Amino acid sequence: MGIARTGRSIVAIAATTALLAACGGAGGDAGGSDGEPVTLTWWHNGIDEPLNSYFERVALGFEADHPNVTIENVPIQNEELKAKLADALATGAFPDIFQQWGGGQMGEQVAAGVLLDLTDDVSSELELIGGSAAGWQLEGRTYGLPFSMGVEGFWYNRALFAQAGIESTPILQEDLDAAVVKLRAAGIVPIAVGAGDKWPAAHYWYNYALRACEPDTMIAAGASKSFSDPCFEKAGEDLEAFLATSPFQDGFLEAPAQQGDTSSAALLANGGAAMELMGHWHPGVMSGLAENGTGLGDDLGWFPFPLTAGGQGNAYSALGGGDGFSCSADAPPECVEFLKYILSVDVQTDYAETGAGLPVTQGSEAGVSDPNMAALLGFRNKAPYVQLWLDVAYGSTVGGALNDAIAQQFAGTGSAADVVDAMNAAAGG
């Protein structure tokens, strides 16, 4: 099923040995040498470094603790993975373990009966991760566990900001508009966006909605699937005003977000643009696309989405989400043990040390040493409200219509009112 792991390098085995020494058998005692052989097929989006090597270490570490278990480690590019999971929902052919973003999309999987209810087996893990589990729960039951929970903002190139004479990061929308003007004047592409994948463009509307709408309005709309509040149209109007500043690279409507040399991530990673709005995972993606193999290094900075005028939303609310995993309904018991292993303190600390995202398990924060990731962690912990990505929160039908309508707005063929109309139509309103 998919691309199975075939070889293990000396480097990977050495790294795993070090991790096992630290973990001391963090995965528990399920399975063992006397157990029947079990193969767990695992789909995830860690195709680039450092996630690819990290997930390899996780698989090897679990296998060492559970000699009867083989992990079929299947890394799949993010957009392809979403498509494969959509196909699996139609056919019922899910792998044992797979990437789970929670929210409305997970609800559709729960309704289809394809997810394992983890509730009774993960009480200790839920205590360790606290509120981070909310996006993977439905009606008091737990159907997935996050391993990373972060927020979104602008990743930027400090050197290009300095070259354009920008002395501080934008706080207000007018500051961001002014930065776009200065960067253009200096011959620098202000912002990269992979609008060809739709969701990176849609995230601008999401953030403007978060600034325009009160948290209670966002929550109520997610529950009722009714988007009549004027704040949703204001989000589109704020987006239209920003698009009028021409902030993006040539060809942004067709550009992919994270795939290859023409992606928006590669543009930022290689100094071809000054900024990109993206989530906590972005440094890890960029390092895999950087010509130097590492990315911007000390020139990489981060700041939250600016504040907008006239909105009802909390000024410091955050748009965010996480990465987690679910087990299919017919997965063997070792699948649950594997999820527990991923959330163990030592394995989560190792994840934090990769710099690819923010851990969720209490006690693993010490692994967050990168200043940018520490800034994200501080912003996440202080945010009074964190809104899950809207296409995830609203489910595939409304979320897909929303992303499509925003893509049309980016292309100049749709309006702020059209976006709201598309959401309500998709919801049946």
UniProtKB/TrEMBL annotation:
InterPro entries: SBP. Residues 1-21 form the signal peptide. It comes from the Bacteria. Keywords: Signal, Transport. Gene3D superfamilies: Periplasmic binding protein-like II (3.40.190.10). Pfam families: SBP_bac_1. Belongs to the bacterial solute-binding protein 1 family. PANTHER family: MALTOSE-BINDING PERIPLASMIC PROTEIN, MALTOSE_MALTODEXTRIN-BINDING PERIPLASMIC PROTEIN. This is Raffinose/stachyose/melibiose transport system substrate-binding protein.
